[in-house]
Amino acid sequence: MRKVILAIDEGTTNVKSLLMDKQGDVIGKGSSPLSINYPSAGLVEQDPLEMIERVKASIELALKSTAEKVDIEAVAISNQRESVLLWDRQTGKPLSNVISWQCRRSESLCESLREDEIFSQYVQSATGLTLDPMFPATKVSMVLSQISMGEERAEKGEICIGTINSWLIWNMTDQTFVTDVSNASRTQLFNIRNLVWDAEILKKLHIPVKALPAVVGSSCVVGVTREFGMLKGDIPIASQVGDSHAALFGHGGFNKGVVKATYGTGSSVMAAMPKLPAIRSEISTTIAWQDSDLFYGLEGNITHTGSGIDWVRRMLGVEDIEAMCELAAEADKDHSVFFVPALSGLGAPYWDLDATGIFSGLKSGTERADIARAAFEAVIFQVADVFNVIQEELPAPIEYLSVDGGPTLNDWLMQAQADLLGVTIRRGDVAEVSAMGAGFLAGLEIGWWGDKEALASLKRHEVLFDPKQAKHEYWQTRYLSWKAAVLKCRMPS
Where is the Carbohydrate kinase FGGY N-terminal domain (predicted)? Predict the structure, then answer.
């Protein structure tokens, strides 16, 4: 039987499971979709019990996708970050739905907390994160207050508060309650300097530390599986890591000068470094992962990229993304339309909750194709915003950007990104880089590879998009026009 690692990537819209061998090759995979619920304006939730069933389904599909008999030596988990839920410690039953990272229910609480400048600055310094509804801290505080005797029960240890990795591990084991440093660092409750749950923030938000999981390394055996669908028992769970962090590791982000961009519903641009970098308000400072070493990360989170394209697609009445691409290709390359997808405010590097989405430059001659292309262009402009901030913090120029995610399959989009940034874009042939990164961390833990140098020597298949200097000025000029549109969308109403 071929020895494999089962790498699970629990995302926002689907769960993917891969079977990867010691050469880093994927020999089987499966995917199962997740539903998203919108109970009211600004609220975004998912069903935690459905999530468990979809994980089981994706594992079953992966196991059935290969004719080979396999021996699963370890389980690896990457997960959508910032999404969080509460459950009863004794029964294991959810006390809330999964509160999505996209949910904006705590906007007013964030605004109130930001009025306390001393506390706001403390949060930024301690956690590396700007007070924003994307992060779980304020949402957990609100949901806990809505549960009968919630704070009192949490103080007694009767309630568990966890991100998705914690929820999966709880259900896949005999109720092991843990998280890793990467996911903890995204809750806005974890002090990234001292590597502990931050007492001052917990006190301010009325969140008892007894309700939070133990924090361990990203590459670490935390327990063994029980029978879980088609997954057998007694298999070590050897890694857990946030999906963007996992993607960076999968791209070889443990090497100097590697910057990655994950394009999806939203997007993440991230670089790792061995020491705590300067805390900046425009981007997040986070913990990238911890294996034998602790790596910090600089990251910019963009709220609407793929979802911005999809929103424009629906407004135009275009059937699917393929048709949207075809429509955008018909646009005049010098069209005057610029789209800023501030559909729930702007994320990095602006962090402006009051910004509103706009189309700028509409004229009587504007065509549907121009609007469609503006939606795609907004993606590369937003990535450039964050890329430029990260470049300022790195000691040497960035030579290339490693990319992953569904939108990267659009060759035009990737070439345009390369031309705008003036750097080479590297796109691997495995789309599920987050799962691969988690698998690599698990493999290091169980001794598949002696060190990261051995891991880096694994054969990689990449498509390169080299920048075309002749196009650089064209895209830079359009980027300046898009920046002007950003200023308009941030003007007080």
Answer: 4-250
